[in-house]
Amino acid sequence: MIFDNVLKCVGNTPCLALKLGKNLIHAKAEFMNPSGSVKDRVAARIIDLAINDGSLRPGMCIAEASSGNMGISLAMAGAACGYDVTIYMCETASVERRNIMRMLGANVILTPAHQSVGGAVEALRVDAASDPNLFLVNQFGNKENILAHYNGTGKEIWEDTGGNIDCFINGIGSGGTMMGVGTYLRERNPDIRLIAVEPKGAASLLGHKPKLHSIEGIGDGFLPDIVKPEYIDAIQEISDAQAIEYARKLARDKGIFIGMSAGANLAAAEIVMNEHPDWRIATILPDRAERYFSTQLFAGQPNIVSKGRTAA
Ligand SMILES: Cc1ncc(COP(=O)(O)O)c(C=O)c1O
Q1: Residue nearest to atom 16 of ligand 1 (CA)
Q2: Cα of 39 to ligand 1 centre, how many Å?
Q3: What is the pLDDT along the chain (312 residues), one digit of tens a residue?
């Protein structure tokens, strides 16, 4: 197939059947999207609709607060469609993400670590009040975020698995994936359970306060407007160590190179599978490991041996 714009390559990702221990889990390989994450679906839909309905006009600047991947997807979409992009992000987001955005031509504004993603949202709100040239994406409140997953990810998972699903498990960042996929699946089978994955001790759905953690992309420290907690049947907390363990395990055992939130989803899936061995579980692998070279995911990797090195 030949495409005339990178945004047309978004979606229709492969679904992997992964054997974890005795259990088989279906995992949607969202890292196969063109900029490398699940957020390409949301950026492509929002920018495409906004150009078509005239709310994004030539000369405007696309602006968003993001923990990273949405920023990268918007930077890609802006470059592909000829718009400037400015991304507000927490200074704890990995340096790889910042650099990818800059390489794609976006401006990056960093906000303080202790304010989590909420600080980036607030800084953008303040700037937007005096700048009518900004096109605000607002992934945390934009229903198109949900619809990108309702019409795309959810429909694809249903078709990939032939509807043979008892439970969908996924981490909550903006909540768009969980709400969109969950709504699509439940409309077809109201008995499907939805289980949210949250960082241990930083679960907004359990009323926890924001806390620094390593599972980038989820647990942003507040409950986004588009999330309906009553939709969710259960919450599975996952520690940084568990998320990292599963991300490493998938690389070593399966050759699949995923980020920490994908590791968290798989860790949660295995816990749920062990409690309910008869459930057929689907989950998401939101992004790839290259985005995290500078983080704990790569710390202390033991399998490098130096022989005959000449440089210090
Ligand atoms: C790596 C990663 N995992 C998970 C998510 C959560 O997806 P959602 O925002 O749809 O809840 C995101 C969102 O940015 C992400 O970047």
Answers
A1: 217
A2: 7
A3: 899 999 999 999 999 999 988 889 999 999 999 999 999 999 999 999 999 999 999 999 999 998 689 999 999 999 999 999 999 998 988 888 899 999 999 999 999 988 888 899 999 999 999 999 999 999 999 999 999 999 999 999 999 999 999 999 999 999 999 999 999 999 999 999 999 999 999 999 999 998 889 999 999 888 999 999 999 999 999 999 999 999 999 999 999 999 999 999 999 999 999 999 999 999 999 999 999 999 999 998 766 677 876 665
Q: How many CB atoms sit inside 10 A of residue 126's CB?
A: 9
Domains and CATH numbers, the chain: 6-32+149-297 (3.40.50.1100), 40-136 (3.40.50.1100)
Nearest protein CA to atom 7 of ligand 1, as residue: 173
pTM tops 0.70: yes
Q: How far apart are the C-alpha atoms of 230 and 220, rounded to whole Å?
A: 19
Instruction: Specify whether the backbone of 36 is left (phi greater than 0), alpha (psi in -120 to 50) or beta.
Output: left
User: For residues 173 and 179, what is the distance between their CA atoms, to the nearest angstrom?
Assistant: 11
